[in-house]
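Journal club side-thread
Mid-discussion, someone asked how the predicted structure for our own chain would compare to the paper's figures. Pasting it here so we can look after the session.
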Amino acid sequence: MNIPQDLKYTKEHEWIKMDGDVATVGITDFAQGELGDIVYVEIETEGETLNAEEVFGTVEAVKTVSDLFMPLTGEVLEFNTGLEADPEAVNRDPYGDGWMIKIKVSDVSQVDNLLDAAAYGELIGG
């Protein structure tokens, strides 16, 4: 199971990479494996400010549709438009080309509430 050490994680299986007050967010390798083949990613919250744990979009796989939850409060700055034509990038490269959104974080101290790689590994039984 791939759990990069330099990222933060949520109990809802999202990963977060901070760069100043901007967070890049995607779903974890574990999550994409559980979902199976991803066929569609829908994000219609670009430009909106959402609170942590609010739904920012959905990911549709062959088996199921799952909500995507904001890991931090902030404004959705950008959606990875590459996923419109190539949603399978989430399966192939969840921590790279498969990123989903970028958020301008309202309160960077919220990052302290996220899981580190070790804690996330324990959560998924890794």
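Post-session note: DSSP finds four helices and nine strands in the chain.
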